[in-house]
Predict the 3D structure of the following.
Amino acid sequence: MPTAIDRAARLDAVAEATLEVALSEGVDAVTIRAVATRMGGSTTVITKFVPTRAELLDNVIRYVQERWEGEISEEVAPKSGGDRVRALIRWSTRPTRSDRLIRRFWLNALATDDERSRAAVRGEARREHARIRTAVDGAGKDPWVADLIYLALRGYYVSTIEDPQRWSHRKVASALENLLDAAGKG
């Protein structure tokens, strides 16, 4: 009798291999075959769990989002008021290579005809907006501040792909923190 496969563990392993392929060869090189090769198996090792490239992208987005939730719980959630908003801004603008990669995955997902992939990205975007809104509310700021921070961060994510040298994390974090400070003076 074949051994049972832990579906969640396999999906995580596929996501890790997907990120490794993207890191070494670029997001466009991410295919089921490339991920299977990275995992040392045949494509059926992948397609049994993620049968299409769109689902491969969805899986890596899910994987990264779960990691982010843990990081936010450790780095941002313990803070309160304006410090929490600033911590969220700094966390959101950190210049990690995997964060830049996931933004490329988002753009790929948004550019597909696969509604499920676009819905996954929209779901993440709505969770991000809700996180920002909660932090801004806790700091006693008006809701429009959350909207501006959210829109600025989404623009930053695209800018890190199109012109990363111009839009450094420090520059964006500083601008958003200045916005937060200015919102309290109105």
